[in-house]
Prior knowledge:
- The chain is of the alpha+beta class and 199 residues long.
- It contains four helices and eleven strands.
- The chain has helices spanning 99-112, 114-123, 130-141, 144-151; strands spanning 10-17, 21-27, 32-33, 40-41, 44-57, 60-72, 82-84, 162-163, 166-170, 176-179, 197-198.
- Strands 1, 2, 5, 6 and 7 form a five-stranded mixed beta sheet that branches. A four-stranded antiparallel beta sheet has the order 8-9-10-11. A two-stranded antiparallel sheet has the order 3-4.
- α1 packs across α2 (114-123), α1 (99-112) packs across α3 and α2 packs across α3 (130-141).
- The radius of gyration is 20 Å and the shape is flat.
Amino acid sequence: MVIFPDLSDGMVEQVQVADEITVTLRAASPTAPCPCCGTVAERVQSCYTRHLHDLPSSTRAVHLLVEVRRFFCLKKTCRRKIFAERFPLLVLPYAQRTIRLQQTLQMLGFALGAQAGARVSKQLHLGASRDTILRLVVKVLCQPQSLHESLGSTSGRGSADCVMGHCCAISNDGCLWTFFPIAQSKPLRPGSRSTPALK
């Protein structure tokens, strides 16, 4: 039995197990709120299927087929007349991986770097390349508050290149460098002689 705790309002319609696990699911609610104005919509305009990658199960890759409905927003002042329903606890808009898979790859990137993280992800059947992990790490560095929340940091302060009390930089060869501790008010720069670096 496949359980998705991040989709409490969802419904699993079909599960196929072969070389990989394919799960078809959809939202259980007949309505959806507009992401722009918050108006609850009931009128469906069309449907489409999102293909997502999730964390593996028993060394098998998990592929999600999420049925997404497009709704009409009936609020006249709303700038978005048609919108797709969201699954905020499962996946971000336009993403191809679930949130929990993205967070796992981000933690690998911060712990090991992009190159080593890609090798470990292959062993864990996560299937992420160096460029993918690098891109996800950069995404977190541009949004420091999201990393504090996802990785459980107790510090609420940080800059675009300071994460969890560490200053991070990415070199041209795709390696993630972490400088610590940070005693200065400004982020440290790679190559600083006064600060040791860990690769």
